[in-house]
Write a structure and sequence with these properties.
Layout (H helix, E strand, L loop, with lengths): L6 H12 L13 H10 L3 H10 L7 H30 L3 H14 L4 H46 L4 H30 L3 H14 L3 H50 L2 H14 L6 H28 L3 H14 L4 H19 L15 H14 L1
Protein name: Tetratricopeptide repeat protein
Organism: Ectothiorhodospira haloalkaliphila
Keywords: TPR repeat
Length: 382
């Protein structure tokens, strides 16, 4: 009901002002000091701090100065404590309690930008969480109705006298119409927001519960947009993989050339094998392989001679190490294998004859054929 305002009720305050000489008005005057006290009692610390800054010199008592110093120390700590307390609540998803903590903090520190920003972030997260749950609930209801309706329709057909099933079918059909309408709205909003997966899910359910031309048209648009996005995503993924493949290939090429320049033929071999896996059709790979093979052959030729010199000088362990390093480059090199086996047998003999007269090492054949003949002669003697 509209409240009527009587004319005399408006004129009465004016009359009191005119009659002020008869009865002097008592005007309550609040000093800055009193306002500071009130702000402290209300825990409005930022307001109290501003009021203290306005105090004239005559009213700056020792108590007021102590309060001002306390506020300067406390404000930063208080802000941090509020943020930490609210953050702990947010980690437990106690959204409303966290918002209440922010609100209490903003009463004390209304101009705190960190508190304002944190509260706004928490509010958005809370509303997003609510929206997510409401959307999930709506989709779950739609799926449930879509699954139940054909079952009850079949039950009503098989047993027409089942009154309870008939009533439940009627309720499901009515609920299906309402939920389908809500799902259509949700699908439309999701389509506008480019949330295409949600749009397709919501509109598909809506069309299943209540087929309409409008819903079908929106569903077609959502499916087409989703297909376009997926195609673009596949192209982007392919381009990203292609770029990563090219970068990896360039890296392997660089590592190969660096290894060749430094003489690390094992590393060069590994990098070349990596290139063969990443870009097997590269026309430069056969040339690089020939370059590597030539360098390995040269290394083995020089290493064989170095190992023979060490062997004849009695440095048998060093010779074995030299030849073994070469075997890493050519694991199936027959001459290297024969040299290593012969030198290892000599080392075993030397270890077994410690304290006996020095054993003269077996001679090293000049090539692999002579090595094989020497091995055959040893076998016949045994």
């Amino acid at each position: 009901m509209r409240r009527l305002v009587r004319p005399w009720a408006v004129l009465l305050p004016l009359g009191l002002l005119v009659l002020g000489g008869c009865a002097p008005l008592e005007v309550e005057i609040t000093t800055l000091s009193q306002k500071v006290d009130e702000a402290f009692k209300a825990h409005e610390y930022q307001r109290a701090q501003a009021l203290l800054a306005e105090l004239p010199t005559g009213e700056r008592t020792q108590q007021m100065e102590a309060r001002e110093a306390w506020l300067e120390r406390m404000t930063g700590h208080l802000e941090q404590a509020i943020l930490m307390q609210a953050a702990a609540l947010l980690r437990r998803e106690q959204w409303l309690d966290a918002l209440e903590v922010y609100d209490r903090g903003l009463v004390m520190l209304p101009d705190s930008a960190p508190l304002q920003a944190a509260r706004e972030t928490a509010r958005v997260q809370y509303e997003g969480r609510l929206t997510d749950l409401q959307v999930r609930l709506m989709l779950a209801r739609g799926r449930s109705l879509a699954a139940l309706r054909p079952i009850y329709e079949e039950l009503a057909r098989v047993d027409p006298e089942d009154a309870e099933a008939a009533r439940e079918l009627g309720r499901i059909r009515q609920d299906s119409l309402e939920v389908a309408q809500d799902l259509q709205k949700l699908g439309g909003l999701a389509l506008e927001a480019k949330e295409l997966r949600l749009a397709v899910d919501a509109l598909s359910l809506s069309q299943a519960l209540r087929p309409t031309d409008d819903t079908l048209e929106m569903l077609d648009s959502a499916q087409q947009a989703k297909a376009q996005v997926q195609a673009a995503q596949r192209q982007a993924d392919h381009a990203r993989r292609q770029a990563a493949w090219e970068a990896r290939s360039r890296e392997l090429f660089d590592h190969y050339h660096e290894a060749m320049q430094s003489g690390d033929l094992n590393a060069a071999s590994r990098h070349l094998k990596g290139l063969e896996r990443t870009r097997p059709r590269d026309e430069s790979l056969p040339r690089l392989q020939r370059e590597l093979d030539q360098a390995i052959d040269t290394r083995i030729t020089l290493g064989l001679e170095e190992g023979r010199r060490q062997y004849l000088d009695g440095e048998i362990e060093q010779a074995v190490e030299t030849w073994r390093e070469l075997l890493e480059l050519r694991p199936n090199h027959a001459e290297l294998q024969a040299h290593v086996q012969r030198a290892e047998r000599v080392l075993e003999s030397l270890r077994g004859l410690e304290g006996e007269p020095m054993v003269i090492p077996e001679p090293i054949p000049d090539d692999a054929d002579e090595a094989d003949e020497a091995d055959g002669a040893e076998a016949e003697e045994q």
